[in-house]
Write a structure and sequence with these properties.
The complex is a heterodimer of chains A (238) and B (543). Helices cover 25% and strands 16% of the residues of chain A. With 238 residues, chain A is an alpha+beta fold. Chain A has two domains: 73 residues, Ubiquitin-like (UB roll) (Roll), CATH 3.10.20; 150 residues, 2-Layer Sandwich (Alpha-Beta Plaits). In chain A, the strands form three sheets. In chain A, strands 2-1-5-3-4 form a five-stranded mixed sheet, with helices on one face. Chain A has a three-stranded antiparallel sheet with strand order 6-7-10. The relative contact order of chain A is 0.15. With 543 residues, chain B is of the alpha/beta class. Chain B folds into four domains: 100 residues, Glutaredoxin, CATH 3.40.30; 204 residues, NADH-ubiquinone oxidoreductase 51kDa subunit (Rossmann fold, 3-Layer(aba) Sandwich), CATH 3.40.50; 83 residues, Ubiquitin-like (UB roll), CATH 3.10.20; 85 residues, NADH-ubiquinone oxidoreductase 51kDa subunit, iron-sulphur binding domain (de novo design (two linked rop proteins), Up-down Bundle). Chain B has 22 helices and 14 strands. In chain B, the strands form three sheets. A five-stranded mixed sheet of chain B has the order 2-1-3-4-5, with helices on one face. A five-stranded mixed sheet of chain B has the order 11-10-14-12-13. Chain B has a four-stranded parallel sheet with strand order 8-7-6-9, with helices on both faces. In chain B, strand 7, helix 12 and strand 8 form a beta-alpha-beta unit. The longest helix of chain B has 18 residues. Chain B is globular and about 85 Å long. Classes of the chains: A alpha+beta (238), B alpha/beta (543). Chains A and B meet through helix 2 of A and helix 18, helix 19 and helix 20 of B. The structure holds flavin mononucleotide (FMN), iron/sulfur cluster (2 copies) and FE2/S2 (inorganic) cluster (FES). The site of one iron/sulfur cluster has 15 residues of chain A, from helix 4.
Chain lengths: 238, 543
């Protein structure tokens, strides 16, 4: 396997060929914000927060799927990127209903944390506030579609790690939503094994364990990556 | 079938043609205005008049001037009748034997017809769209035979490269280069895909080609299959085009029966099968990665590229994907040579382009013109301009394109010139707008389209189009302030630079181009800012 050398934010770093820019950056303690990325599952490249500038390319490239190459010069926090990330976060906040003070995931939410770290202090666009259902038909878990950001981490975790493929996306555009089985109530979705991986995968308070109240829904997102690594490398201690 | 059998068949077919042929357009445009009744009545009239050995009625493909259908042409070289009715059928049959007809005749010397140069539509309107024999009679499948028996795959790729053909699906990527890339991928299963999704509002070129001349598309695909080393082709058509689907299926069956598709094409070792895949009519399924996901039976949403389909396409195998019109050019390029094709058009845009001319223009329909023709010639001379008014702008490229104001009508139609004006060639929709058109409404219309058609995978397009649509509505309704316009202008570059696929990346284009040329129309609809109607404009970045 060959090794390449590249520059990220003025720092010269080395990477294995085929490694993504996101991976390399994180190894080198360079922070690139992400939402749809989840260690252990495939990439969707849907949240666009990890976009970076690569010298010589006019297009912005998603760090989560762009491979490191020899001599690449990458900038992760140009004024343009900072501005676009804030606008993307604004769009997320306007899309559904993200009132943190009454959310189970308050203080354990990736969206909330990103808004703070990226300096999104104000929403200038109209809130769309659609009326979406909360499904608590499952014995242990629930989904509040009002908090869902459609990152599809639950879909990928359920399909790729648990192998159940209970989750999928239905509808299109602004009417997209995640569904269980053939858009049945979760409690009637026979493919669901109640493993709870989707709940751990979810970056917001959309998927929660029933009985949690405001700010109680702490998630263990490392658990999934640990599982995947353990299976692949047959190594069960972290 | 070998060369002599092919020639025999073509000759026998030609010999069976009656001295006078009444070509009745049976493509969707004319069918919608009653062509089927006309066609039946003509057949009946031929029998009634006892002229079956002198006259024949043929259901042909699109004759071009769809706005004046049903169209009937007396061939060869006879008059072209417009807006014919079933009652007029006997009179047209009479015209075929020298009587004077009672039907309105179109002037085929009019620039609408005379300025056209037909390569893609060469045999459209000349032959029965549902019989392979008629396509063979006019030289069909010769190019495929020639490629298989006289050329190596590399030579075919070389010819296409030399011709300068570029993709007609929108982006204008060099076709030869794409073929060469797929051809160079290691051997193993490869696929050829024909993109017949055609989702742009107002565009119907590809439908017309598939309905009028399905064999031309199949021949182009088979040649491509030989060139890149693929043995399976898929042609992806939207369900809204039932006639195209029916004719393609019929064509595939006929071609298989004659041995020009299937295993051992023309008795050579080359196998090539084609299957039709039907899309449910989502605009995004025209995007190549979404289209392939759809063919595989998955949800039609795009994925990031690279890897490009040429490297990793259908079922992760190298896949060549081209537009219908791109494939339809191929047989003629092979027959007439790369140099001939390259002599048509401009330096960087070769050959012809089919446009569907619609909107506030006198003559609506399909035109095929050499690249480099000016917009003015197409719209004002061929299209006859605007009835009782003047052109304000021409929209090209559909929801991904832009509006070109009247002062730039002398621009030549080629990929680069249109891009320079902030529009694109696109797949060939051309919508003419007159002075009564409100450009903010135009931008809102296309934004609504993109908003409805967004697949919802990535956030800038899923929510950004909704927010831009809201702002446009607010401006159109006179409820917006300069803060709203400023917000809109921030969303435009952000959505185009951050969206995952071409749909989101180009969705702001109509806004961008109308703002560029018709900014005053936005500004005159704004309300003055007061302390109560506008949100306080905050600086975007923290100090
Ligand atoms: C949203 C979207 C819709 C598209 N729709 C079509 C279409 O309807 N037909 C088409 O040929 N190409 C369409 N394309 C372009 C295809 O992705 C692809 O580039 C094209 O089929 C390649 O063929 P070509 O090289 O022959 O142009 C679309 C692209 C996008 C982003
Ligand atoms: S439920 Fe959670 S994990 Fe699933 S798509 Fe929505 S936000 Fe993402
Ligand atoms: S840009 Fe729009 S259509 Fe394309 S992937 Fe994103 S949401 Fe889907
Ligand atoms: S993490 Fe790369 S696009 Fe979401």
């Amino acid at each position: 396997m060959s090794v390449v050398t590249l520059t990220i934010d003025e720092k010269i770093v080395s990477a294995q060929e085929g490694q993504t820019l996101l991976d390399v950056a994180r190894e080198n303690a360079i922070d690139i914000p992400t939402l749809c990325h989840l260690d252990g599952v495939s990439e969707a490249a849907a949240c666009r927060l990890c976009l970076v500038e690569v010298v010589g390319t006019s297009r912005l490239l998603p760090a989560c799927v762009t491979r490191a190459a020899e001599g690449m010069v990458v900038h992760t926090t140009t004024p343009k990127l900072v501005e676009y990330r804030r606008m993307i976060l604004e769009l997320f906040f306007t899309e559904r209903n993200h009132v943190c003070s009454v959310c189970v995931a308050n203080s354990a939410c990736e969206l909330q944390a990103l808004a703070a770290s990226q300096g999104m202090i104000h929403v200038r666009l109209d809130y769309l506030h659609p009326h979406l259902p909360v499904d608590t038909s499952h014995q242990q878990f629930g989904i509040d579609h009002n908090r869902c950001i459609l990152c599809t981490r639950c879909v990928r975790a359920c399909d790729e790690i648990e192998g159940a493929h209970t989750w999928d996306v239905a509808g299109r555009g602004i009417h997209s939503r995640v569904i269980t089985d053939l858009a049945q109530p979760w409690g009637e979705a026979t493919s669901c094994t109640s493993c709870g991986k989707c709940v751990q995968a979810c970056p917001t308070g959309a998927l929660f364990r029933q009985g949690s109240t405001v700010a109680e829904m702490q998630k263990d997102r490392e658990q999934l990556a640990f599982l995947v690594r353990a299976r692949k490398e047959k190594q069960w201690i972290s | 079938m070998d060369r002599s059998e092919l020639n025999d068949l073509a000759q026998r077919e030609r010999a069976s043609w009656k001295p006078a042929r009444l070509h009745c357009c049976t493509a969707s445009g004319c069918l919608a205005t009653g062509a089927e009744g006309v066609f039946k009545a003509m057949k009946q009239a031929i029998t009634d008049k006892g002229l079956t050995d002198r006259v024949q009625a043929v259901g042909v493909g699109c004759l071009g001037l769809c706005g004046r259908g049903p169209l009937v042409q007396l061939a060869p070289q006879g008059p072209l009748f417009e807006q014919v009715s079933a009652e007029q059928a006997p009179s047209m049959v009479g015209a075929a034997v020298g009587e004077s007809p009672h039907a309105a005749i179109l002037d085929t010397a009019h620039p609408f017809f005379s300025s056209q140069l037909k390569i893609v539509c060469e045999t459209s309107g000349e032959i029965d769209s549902e019989r392979i024999e008629e396509y063979l009679a006019l030289g069909g499948y010769r190019a495929l035979h020639m490629a298989l028996t006289e050329m190596t795959p590399a030579e075919v790729v070389q010819t296409i490269s030399q011709s300068g053909l570029r993709g007609r699906g929108g982006a204008g990527y060099p076709t030869g280069l794409k073929w060469a890339t797929v051809a160079k991928m290691p051997p193993g299963p490869k696929y050829v895909v024909c993109n017949g999704d055609e989702g742009d509002p107002g565009a119907f070129m590809d439908r017309s080609v598939m309905e009028s001349d399905p064999h031309r598309v199949l021949e182009g695909m088979a040649i491509a299959g030989y060139a890149v080393g693929a043995t399976q082709g898929f042609i992806y058509v939207r369900a809204e085009y039932p006639l195209a689907v029916e004719r393609l299926r019929k064509a595939i069956n006929q071609a298989k029966k004659l041995g020009v598709l299937g295993s051992g094409v023309f008795e050579t070792p080359f196998d090539f099968r084609v299957d039709v895949r039907i899309g449910a009519g989502a605009f995004v399924c025209g995007e190549e990665t979404a289209l392939m996901a759809s063919i595989e039976g998955r949800r039609g949403s795009p994925r990031p590229r690279p890897p490009y389909p040429a490297e990793m396409g259908l079922w992760d195998r190298p896949t060549l994907i081209n537009n219908v019109e791109t494939f339809a050019n191929v047989p003629t390029i092979l027959r007439k040579g790369a140099d001939w094709f390259a002599s048509i058009g401009t330096e960087k845009s070769k050959g012809t382009k089919v446009f569907s001319l619609t909107g506030k223009v006198r003559n609506t329909g399909l035109v095929e013109v050499p690249m480099g023709t000016s917009l003015r010639h197409i719209v004002e001379v061929m299209g006859g301009g605007v009835e009782g008014g003047s052109v304000k702008a021409v929209q090209t490229g559909g929801p991904s394109g832009g509006c070109i104001p009247a002062e730039f009508l002398d621009t030549s139609v080629d990929y680069e010139s249109l891009a320079q004006l902030g529009s694109i060639m696109g797949s060939g929709g051309m919508i003419v707008m007159d002075q009564t058109t409100n450009m903010v409404e135009v931008a809102r219309f296309f934004m609504e389209f993109c908003m409805d058609e967004s697949c919802g995978k990535c956030i800038p397009c899923r929510v950004g189009t909704v927010q831009m649509h809201r702002l446009l509505s607010k401006i159109a309704e006179g409820k917006a302030t300069s803060t709203d316009l400023a917000l809109l202008e921030q969303l435009v570059p952000m959505v185009s630079e951050t969206s995952l696929c071409g749909l989101g990346q180009t969705a702001p284009n109509p806004v961008k181009s109308t703002l560029r040329y018709f900014r005053h129309e936005y500004e005159e609809r704004l309300r003055p800012m007061t302390s109560t109607n506008g949100r306080v404009p905050l600086p975007l970045r923290l100090a």
